[in-house]
């Protein structure tokens, strides 16, 4: 097994920015598991499958072949032989990802891919259930969070940079809905691992959070 750093937390807590920076600092690979759920969601949306069609989701997700490629250290997400890295970033795909990720067959489908990446590499992996379910033996487990308002503001800026305009209220409501779905689902709900370290980034800069995680890493390495 490689050295594994698991970073879990709710939507918009800054997991991907932080995880990417920590990985770069340590020359580990960064694995964004949310992107994998987004790719499956995109596949199902393109088939015209809706959030209510749980049986169809369970059946058709099996045909979504997701893979991760690294080009110049950047992660690309491929779906059935096409690069969907930017398409999966749309807000509607994120919302569908949050729905399909509660379907056991979808989680099962991605489990092996996530496990094998961590077995073969030193990784910083971010998601919702990495420290609790996917990599229970990870040497470092972080639960990264921030207030809904902070997360909403960050998300709005991110979307704006991509030319998508949404009101802060709409984004905060989306975040609350997504948190609720992620935390109350039956399978692998979002929660802090018992041996995880809580980091609240509401009043911290990106580099402060990165340093905090590097300090925790150095204690364990
Ligand atoms: O992190 P991101 O917003 O890209 O994730 C999209 C959705 O995928 C989340 O709202 C969550 O429901 C789901 N997800 C998950 N388990 C993970 C990563 C993401 O259920 N490990």
TrEMBL record:
MF terms (GO), sorted A to Z: kinase activity
EC number(s) recorded for this UniProt protein: 2.7.4.25
What does the record give as the reaction this protein catalyses? CMP + ATP = CDP + ADP; dCMP + ATP = dCDP + ADP
- Main location, first listed in the record: cytoplasm
Q: SUPFAM superfamilies attached here?
A: P-loop containing nucleoside triphosphate hydrolases (SSF52540)
What is the superkingdom listed in this entry's lineage?
Answer: Bacteria
Question: Has the keyword Kinase been applied to this entry?
Answer: yes
Where's it found, cell-wise? Cytoplasm
Task: Return the HAMAP family for the record.
Answer: Cytidyl_kinase_type1
Protein name listed in UniProt: Cytidylate kinase
